[in-house]
Each structure stands twice: as C-alpha cells, then as structure tokens.
C-alpha cells in the first residue's frame, strides 16, 4: 500500500536527517581544525572594563571559567576561533573628553590579556602572525579601534595607535566625528553633517592607507561608505554589519554598497545581533546564514566573513548564543551547498586576502610622507582642549593673526621650561 | 751682559707665549679625542617642542640638518659629538585634565617621524647597541601626560618612552612639583600620594627610568625610598652652588650616590648662576666639581636642556659646544675615566640596572584607580545597541 511506504520513507528520512546534520557538523569541524574562524569584532574588552575595571587578576575575571559573557577561553576553543579582532571601543560620551586615554586603557587590557594567558592568546599585528598562531594552536589576537572619536582628530594619535598594534579603525561609532557621519544620519534621529567625509576625513582615510591600517565601515552612514569606497586605495571591511536587503536596519549594508564591496575586493563580516539579522529581537541560526547567502549572492563569495559582535550585544540567535557555536553556522552553510573553498574563504581566507592587500598598498606608499596638517581648530568642539601648538594654516582655516598671537604667548612661556 | 739678559728675557717671553698655547691646543684635542671615543648621551632636549611651536610638527617644512632658528640641528649635534639624545615630549601643564594625552602622543609621533626621516638618526629603546648614528630616545616631561592612568603609562613605554619626569611645573593628583605658584593644580599634594607610589613601582616593573628633575624635595625623597632601581635627574644642577628650586641639595646628592643614580647636570644659565651677570663655562664646571666632591663623578651626567630654555653660558650657546665643557673639566684635572663616565658610562650603568629591574620583577596587577569605569556600567548601553 502506498500509504505505508510513504510512512516508511518518512521514518527513514527522520532517522537519516539528523545524521546528515551531524555529517555537516563533522565536516565543519574538520574544515575548521585547519582553517579556524577569524572573527571581525568582539567586545570582550568592554566587558572586562564594565565588570572588573580591567583588573584581570581578580579571581572572578579568570577567562578560563568566566561564565556570564559570550566569550571565554573554553568557548573560543570549542568554536574553533583562530583569530579575533578585539574591539578597543570607548563610548561616544568620551568624545572631546578623555577618549584617547580610555582607548589606550582598552588597548592595554588586550595586551595584558595576551600576557596573562600566553598558552591561549597570541597578540599579533599582521597576516603572517595570524597564520603562525593558527599553526601553534593559539587565538591570534588583534585590536580594532571602534570609532574615530578615539583619535580626537589627530593624525599623530592615529599613527601612535597603529604603532601600538591597532590594525583597523571603524571610522565612527554611533556618533559623528568632526570629519565623518555615522549611520544615525540615515535615520530620522540625526541630520547629516558631512554627507560622508569632510576634507580632513579623506586625509584620515589616506593616512590609514599609508599606514596599512584597515578601514572599517561598520557604524558609518551610507554616504560615508560610498565616499570611502571611492577614495580608499586598499580594500576595506565591515567588521560587524549584515545585509540591508534582508533586514533594512541602517547598521546594515545596502545593495549598491555591496556591489562596490565586490568591485573593490572588500569584505562584509556578518553581524549576528538579532536586531540586525531579522529586524526584530528574535532570530535563529538560519537567519544569519541567510545574510551570508545574500552577501555571497550580491557581492560574491569572496566578500563574506564572520563578525559576530559577541559581548557587544545582548540578543543573539538561537543556535549562536556564544563563541563556541561557529561550527554550527558553518555546518548550515555546507548544507546550503557552499563549497569548501567558499567556506574557507568566509572563515579566514577572505580576511587574509584583504589584510595582505592592505599591506601591499602600505608598501606601495612607503615613500609617501606622513600627512601632517592638523584639522582646523574651528572644526573641533568641546572645552577639554587646549589649542597649544596651533597656528594659522592649520588645516583649511586661514587666521593670520593667530600665529603672531601664539608666538607672543608662547615666547615668554619658554622661560618656564627649565 | 745687559744684552744677554735682554735676549734671555726676550726668549723667556717668547716661550711663555708658545708653551701655554700648545698646552691649550692639546686640551682641546684631548677633549675631542675623548668625545670621539665616548660620544655624549645627553639627558634632555626640547627640540620637539620647537618643532611644534615653529612648524606644528610639519617636518616637511623644515630641513633638520641646517635649521638655524634653534639650538639644535643635526649638523651641530654631530659637531658636538652627541651620540645619543633623549628628546623630551613635553606638553604644557595647562593641558592637564584636558588633552595632555593626545598632545603627548603627537609629540611622540613627531620624534619618531623625525628619527625615521634622517639617516643620521636612529630610534632606540634599550641600552644595547652601538651605532655611528645618533641614537634617539624619548622622555616624557611631567606626570600630567599620563592623566593618572597606569595603562597610559604602559602604552607610552610600548611606544618607546624610557623616562618620565614625575612632574613639570605643576602638581599632578599624585606628585608634587618644585615649582610653587605657577599653576593651581592639586595644591594640597605633597611628595607622592599612594597612587604616586604605585606609579613609581610600575615604572620599576616596566623598566622605565624615574626622572626627578622639576619635582619637590619631598617627592625626591619619597621616590628614592620606594624605587628599587637607580633614579635620574635628567636636567638639574647643584643647589649648594646656586640655590634655585630646580637644583639638588647636598643631602639628596648623597642619597643619590647610595641609590647609584645619576644627576645629568643642566646648562640653563638661570639655574647655574643665581642672578650673577657673567655665566660661562667655568660657572657650569663649578657645579660639576661640587657634585663630584659630594657624590662622586660616577653620579654625574649631562642634560643640557637645549631648546627648552633661553639663556645658556657663554661658550655653550648650542649643541655643538659640548667639547668646550669637557676641555674645561680636563683643565680642572678630571681624568679620562671620570669624563667617559660623565659622557656616557654612568648613564648606561643606570639604564642597564633599570632595565634589569624591569625584567626581574614579576608582573603585578595594577588597576586604574578611577571608579569612572564603574560609572559607565550604570549609565551606558552595550556597544551596539
């Protein structure tokens, strides 16, 4: 009887399906044991500040047993995390105040984390360093500055952050800088100020190209995305953004920008936060896979990466609750017929390609002089600032009398410098 | 008889002219030979400040070899047999609690760019190595540059900073300056607070030299008590010779000797001569002689303070003139070993000791002593929500 054979078929399928799922997971684990994931953005350093005031030696801060964050050492291992860009985020409230100092403090906590857990973390600053860490079974640890407010509009500060090991900078967080607009200007909440980048903002991008610092466009406005994609000589990344075409949230990347991502060899590292994945506060693992499929479709398989945003958000999809769950997501991609090569690309190869190209551009530009013009004083706000050392032709301003005034003020002050 | 006497007299006069002349020449030659062999390590130069004031740190606008608006340029440094220079990344006290950190990073940036752009210069961070280039080192002048953040201190060390002067002419929240009444910051702070002691301990742990120029006597005593490594005065002179608040009194010089530290004698005419009109090489050499008597020549170095002050002794107007000082000390009977010590060996001894101390001490936990981090937890949302 046909009915019974249908039942038999259903039973057989019901028994077979989990094992198919199991197969994909095993396949994912196999691939990830030689190509672990390079994740673009994790806010553990922010958690360390909030919970422990960066005191890593408190017993409750032990990363081997810490259990109320998305990230800890056992979970990183289970998740086959091979490299992590740790965000050295400081809030927009520090802009024009002590953002620079607080950024240094976050960079310090990442370095101390590497010092304290040397069998797990290896603080590195380049693609070779990442690959070496893969081979030695450690989590390559890099730093990303999250928000241009961290440099306080100073190219000197940008350069020193690079020297301290920062290898990407997200041009804005959720606030404008004096030289770039953030994503909120694309909503009703804020009005655009620069419509992308100001002239000084362009200089920042050019200096980042020269230094070999990856430009990150998560959190920026669409105009800023387009401006950067037009002028940057190196490919860029979105360290933790998803696809606007699926979830029209302004933190996500619209299709026309995805096409620019494709034509520039750039990278979108997909964010797992529910609100950016389903535009609601609930999501599941397959919704994230939808975003990865979408980016692959519009921008190409070489433009896909992982940017979980763990410990930077509270709502994560079922199936992706913490950093141990990457293999499950990879298994889902395999089930959707991603080839092994495409999967490896998303896991690590795409980021390494971008990073190497960024370094190639740095080499190409090695005979270019560093940019030295300071931003014009009137483009800056806030009273926690001295205009010490500024004179007339700072940036784009012309104030001839200021130079003389400055010289007159500073000359007698020299006498106190003994 | 009379004619023979006249001839004799004439001959004597002739010889008395020649003989001292050739002695002087050989003193000068000796000084130069000595310095060729043992080039100077100078403890303090504010050229980076001039680059900021004159050129807003735009190196593309200036040729550092020939620049003649400043005491310092590369040609003069070479003529002065300078082998290593601590460049000060000083920022004004009025930036305290404002943008001192940013400004300090900008000064560090200009020093690094300067040292990368000229083949005569080479950035170094340790006591090792011996190149024919002029070694660039970096010193922070004033604890206000760390904005009371030990993490910021550590990051400065990572960037290559190898000494910090605990104060400039203003108190920090944790240390007392020798300057009174110039600024109004933290007037009740005396010596080092508890946090100030943590700063000193962290500097020991990192291997960063503790510089006590500009600090009050209480601060000096407190630092000498806690520091496990020798300390320095990067640019100060002798209080007994001229009782200026920037100078070091004899009792502290004696403690410095026990500490095996170093005072890098400074050339600022105002602190050398206490208002006397004539200030020359001899005035400066008096300071050297006095300190040698109290603390021994092994406690002495040189920290000119060029481009940081206006008035210098006659004969020492710029950084090419160091050999004249060495010549004068030779004349006063200093021997070559003592002078090589003053020129570089004493400093290197201190630097190595500080580096060793930095490697020996196990890593300790130091937290930022501000509760502001906890405030963030209550007030602010997650980074991406």
What features would you describe in this structure?
- The complex is a heterodimer of chains A (418) and B (385).
- With 418 residues, chain A is an alpha/beta fold.
- Helix content of chain A is 44%, strand content 10%.
- With 385 residues, chain B is an alpha/beta fold.
- Chain B has helices at 2-37, 47-55, 74-79, 100-117, 150-158, 194-206, 217-226, 250-259, 269-273, 281-295, 322-331, 336-360, 372-379, and strands spanning 40-45, 82-88, 121-123, 134-141, 161-165, 209-211, 232-236, 262-265, 300-302.
- In chain B, strands 1, 2, 3, 4, 5 and 6 form a six-stranded parallel beta sheet that branches. In chain B, strands 7-8-9 form a three-stranded parallel beta sheet.
- The longest helix of chain B is centred in the N-terminal third of the chain and has 36 residues, at 2-37.
- Chain B is globular, with a radius of gyration of 23 Å.
- At the A-B interface, helix 2, helix 4, helix 6 and helix 14 of A face helix 2, helix 4, helix 5 and helix 13 of B.
Largest interface: A-B, 67 and 64 residues
Order of helices and strands of chain B: HEHHEHEEHEHEHEHEHHEHHH
Helix content of chain B: 40-55%
Unreliable stretches covering 5 or more consecutive residues of chain A: 392-408
Number of contiguous helices of chain B: 13
Mean pLDDT of chain A: 92
Count of distinct strands of chain B: 9
User: What is the end-to-end distance of chain A?
Assistant: 104 Å
Assess the beta-strand content of chain A as a share of residues.
5-15%
Unreliably modeled segments of chain B: 362-379
* Secondary structure category of chain B: alpha/beta
Report the span from N to C terminus of chain B: 112 Å
* Order of helix and strand elements from N to C terminus of chain A: HEHHEHEHEHEHEHEHEHHEHHH
Beta-strand segment tally of chain A: 9
Query: Helicity level of chain A, as a percent range?
Result: 40-55%
Query: What percentage of the residues of chain B does DSSP assign to strands (E)?
Result: 5-15%
Radius of gyration of chain B: 23 Å
Radius of gyration of chain A: 23 Å
What sort of overall outline of chain A do the alpha carbons produce when their principal axes are compared? globular
Helix and strand composition category of chain A: alpha/beta
